[in-house]
Amino acid sequence: MALFDMRDRLIVGLDLPTIEAADDMVDTLGDTVTFYKVGLQLTFAGGIDFARRLLDRGKKVFLDVKLLDIDNTVEHAVENIAKLGMTFCTIHAYPKAMRAAVAGKGTSDLRLLAVTVLTSMDEADLAAAGYAGTIGELVSRRAADARAAGMDGIVCSPSEAAAMRAVVGAGMAIVTPGIRPGGTPVGDQKRIATPTAAIRAGADHLVIGRPILEAADPKAAAHAIQKEIARALST
């Protein structure tokens, strides 16, 4: 389980179009938020240098690039990512890719997360992509593969979190996107839960973007979510 202090339970997804917008959001959130996700949108807008600046400010960074390529490419990409000082990096949960990533990580402190099934997918999407069986079955199989490959954690929806704890054990982190506080728009997410439900299901970290980024007062929204997480842990 990858916990550092209580505030690290919340990872704010900086899914914003520009580095300037991301910088402004980090300034707005101030000391309330300690952990940020830099995803594909921001990565291709200069996000790696931005992530380095976050690290210099004492923040933790989740690099969400969902690597999937031939083994050699994944291994050497992760070797380079491991030198950057990020806390988390995502790999699609294909066994060969995960094994290559673990080899590339070596003895570094980088924590590798296996992406099981995206939270924007439902059973119909899975069938359209050619997969047989249910989402729960696929997530379980990929979580087991992640554990066998030596990954540090998995990314799954809060709907699967409770069941996946039995699959991955106590030592691996469960990170859940698709979190929507009560009364906030669902957007393109399909397998969602409130912060309370996700924590009670066994999630270690909650990745939350739009409910904070689009709030009238992002800092107050982040603080309210952290308070909700604390209450869920205490009951």
TrEMBL record:
Q: Which UniProt keywords apply?
A: Decarboxylase, Lyase, Pyrimidine biosynthesis
Q: What molecular functions are annotated in GO for this chain?
A: orotidine-5'-phosphate decarboxylase activity
Top-level division of the source organism's lineage: Bacteria
> Pathway of this protein?
Pyrimidine metabolism; UMP biosynthesis via de novo pathway; UMP from orotate: step 2/2
List, alphabetically, the InterPro entries matched: Aldolase_TIM (IPR013785), OMPdecase (IPR014732), OMPdecase_AS (IPR018089), OMPdecase_bac (IPR047596), OMPdeCOase_dom (IPR001754), RibuloseP-bd_barrel (IPR011060)
What do the Gene Ontology cellular component annotations say? cytosol
Query: EC number(s) on record?
Result: 4.1.1.23
Domain annotation Orotidine 5'-phosphate decarboxylase: ranges: 9-225
Q: Which residues form the active site?
A: D64, K66, D69
Catalytic reaction annotation = orotidine 5'-phosphate + H(+) = UMP + CO2
What GO terms in the biological process aspect are recorded for it?
Answer: 'de novo' pyrimidine nucleobase biosynthetic process; 'de novo' UMP biosynthetic process
Q: Which Pfam families does the UniProt entry name for this protein? A: OMPdecase (PF00215)
Q: Which residues bind substrate?
A: 15, 37, 64-73, 119, 180, 189, 209-210
Spell out the family assignment given in the record's similarity comment. Belongs to the OMP decarboxylase family. Type 1 subfamily.
Q: What's this chain's function?
A: Catalyzes the decarboxylation of orotidine 5'-monophosphate (OMP) to uridine 5'-monophosphate (UMP).
What name is this protein filed under?
Orotidine 5'-phosphate decarboxylase
